Amino acid sequence: MSDPGYVHGYSLREAARLADQADTLAELLHVGTHYPAGARVLECGCGTGAQTVHLAASSPEAEIVSVDISPEHLERARERTETAGYTNVSFQIADAYDLPFAEQSFDHVFVCFLLEHLPEPERALGQLRGLLKECGSITAIEGDHGSWYCHPSTHEAERTVECLVEIQAGHGGDALIGRRLYPLLAGAGFHTVHVSPRLVYVDDSRPDLVEGFSKNTFIAMVEGVREQALDLGLMDEASWDKGIADMYKATDPGGTFSYTFFKGTALK
Ligand SMILES: C[S@@+](CC[C@H](N)C(=O)[O-])C[C@H]1O[C@@H](n2cnc3c(N)ncnc32)[C@H](O)[C@@H]1O
Question: How far apart are CA 182 and CA 60, in angstroms?
Fold first, then answer.
C-alpha cells in the first residue's frame, strides 16, 4: 500500500537520510514537545521512525501510536524503536485521510514532514482534529525549500532545488508548505495556533551540521530526485551534476548553508 507517487521513495538511502535529518535536528525541532504520563499520542506519517525515537525518549510515559501508509517504512520504524529499547510505541499501517481510530481517542497528534506530501493537507488535518479529545493539541513540523540558500551559489545549484519543488508539486505535494502552516491549521478548525520558524544555519565552525544537515539531509534529498528531474527534462544531465557539485562546494570551508523549518502547535 506504499504510495507510488511519494517523491522521496522508499530506499535504504532515504531511510538513512530521514535518520540523519531527525538526529541532527532533534534539539531544534523537538524542544518543547513533551507529553505527560498516560497521554495517548498519535504520530501520523511516522516514516522509518526517525522522529518516533525522539518522541518516545522525551515522553517515556506517554502511549504513542505511530502510523504510516508504507509497510516498508513502518517495518523500519518498528525495528528502530525496538532496537532503541522503547516499549511505549505501537505501530499500525494507516492512511492519513482514513484513520482507523475512534473520534476523540487521542490527547495529542504529532506530524512531521507529512503535510508537504499530501495533495489535501487541510482535509487530513481536519480528520486528525476529529480524533483529538476536547482541548487536545496538534504539533506539526514542516520545511519550506524556498527558505534555503547557500554561499557560494550558482544558478545550477538553485535550479536543482527548484526541480525538487516542481517534482513534488507534480506528485500533489508542496515543498513550500512551511509558509502555509498557520493558515492550514486555522483553516482545519484548530485554535490558539502558534507557528515558530526554526532556522538552521551552517558554516564550517559546525562540522556536525555540515555533515548531518547540509550534506546528509539537504543535498541528499535533492540528489534523490536526479532521475525524475532528468526523465522529465527539467534540467540536462551536465547542468544537474554541476548544480549538485556547486552545492557541495558550499559545504567546503568558507561556504554557508541556511534553511528554515516551521513548527506549529494548536488546540482542538
Ligand atoms: C518525509 S517522510 C517523514 C517521516 C517522518 N515523519 C520523519 O520526519 O522522519 C513522509 C512519510 O509520510 C508517509 N505518507 C505519505 N502519504 C501518507 C498518507 N496519506 N498517510 C500516511 N502516511 C503517508 C510516507 O510514507 C513517509 O513515510
Answer: 29
Collapsing DSSP to helix, strand or coil, 177 comes out as helix
- Topology of the domain covering 12-267: Rossmann fold (3.40.50)
Ligand 1 contacts (CB < 6 A) are: 3, 6, 8, 18, 22, 45-47, 50-51, 68-70, 73, 95-97, 112-114, 117-118
Give, in order, the Cα–Cα distances in Å from 26 to each of 19, 112, 251: 10, 12, 21
The residue extents of the domains of the chain are 12-267
**What does pTM read for this prediction?**
0.93
Distance from residue 132's CA to the centre of ligand 1 (Å) = 20
For atom 25 of ligand 1, the residue with the nearest CA is 70
pLDDT block averages, 10 residues each, the chain of length 268? 61 75 83 94 96 95 97 95 95 97 98 97 98 97 98 98 97 97 98 97 96 94 96 98 98 97 98
